[in-house]
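hey so i finally got around to running both of the ones u sent me last week. sorry it took forever, my laptop kept dying halfway thru and i had to restart like 3 times lol. anyway pasting them below in the order u listed, first the sequence line then the structure token line for each. didnt double check formatting much so if smth looks off just lmk and ill redo it

first one:
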Amino acid sequence: MVRHFREARTWKRLWPTDNSLRLSMEEAMYLNAEIGILHVYTGNCQECEPNILWKKFYGRYGIRFVKRYVTYRHFRLQGWVVRSGLHCGVDFMLYRDGPEYYHSSAAVRIISAGGERSVASFIALNRELNSMKKTLVEVLVLIPEDCEIPSISCIHSISIIHTTALTWKTSDDR
């Protein structure tokens, strides 16, 4: 019990008290590289160019960052507001105009090509999302073998395929 109180106090100390905005790495990369409205600086007060920022994120998070960023960018370019989907067990949630105006419309899960997927977990996730009136969108990120991933210019040769999972409810058909 005492341990839980200590952990809670630690989290409270770490939580921002200045109401500052916290961005995900995908949001930061997008605002820096695509829109050019975010400037990121190193500890030496030197500005990080998009390619340097890309290398830092890729160096730290690997191919997972690349897949997440390409997916994030794809949906942002289509006009969606993209937020974390951690609370629903997916990579991202898609909003029409933003979380302050509407509930999310869809949940995005990034899948691996040729990877084993559990049918039971897919059905459970799809059913849970359907009960919350969300559509499950599965995204497969296709990275060519000759793609130079350590450079941000690689995003132009990466493509994605997305499929939407729909559930037919027999109770609605009666």
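and the second one:
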Amino acid sequence: MNKNGLSEYTNSVHRIGRIGTVIAILIMLGIPVTMCTYFDMWPKAADLLMFCGGLLALYVPTGIVESVTYTPILGSSIYMSLITGNVSNIKLPCALNALDIAKAEQNTDEGDAVCTIAIAVSSLITIAVVIVGVLMLVPLQPLLSSPTVQVATSYMLPALFGCMFIRLMVTNPAGGKITGKWKMMIAPILILLGILVFVTKLNRGIGVLITIPVMILSSWLLFKSGQVKVIQGKNQQETGNSETNNEK
């Protein structure tokens, strides 16, 4: 442990994560900048604002909310998750399943290592699947465009998020146990259903922007009122005992 109470593993993985994030940003921005400079085809600022304004208004807040929401679950592996993308659909389910299989707890060095390995393997498999998909796109086009497959694919995303929902509700986050967890769902669900029924339809990004702040606020109010209680897990108790002994 250093003077900030962080382990050597935590310090090293955060350092590598920051360096990797900077390199990834430079590569992502460097390629279009190089192409525009070499071919002298820089777009006008007005055109960029017109075409990208709506996307930025949606995805910038969504990215911020996802970072704040997923970091307590994924730990230091959030760096790799955000760099490779597709966090909600692929990276988060892989990390949660890996934690469950390894019997590791969130917010521990072991849990961070398990999540990092799971997300790294998931990224490699995704690349392999994309390569195979590109090569097999034309031969499989009749099968993929068939009505049966199209109907089946419409159930994939609800099934995925249903599994994630059950997984998050029955597990013990951050190495502890939360009692009354189901009460935290009531306010976000009621507000979202009210908007969908009485106001307008929402896409997933807007739904996330609405429900996450409501979920955080309702969880805090329920915790303060004693409706939701957090019981420390084994690792947290051991950490607290060791810190107490060190102070003595």
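quick thing i noticed on the 2nd:
Strands lie at 177-179, 229-231.
anyway thats it, ttyl
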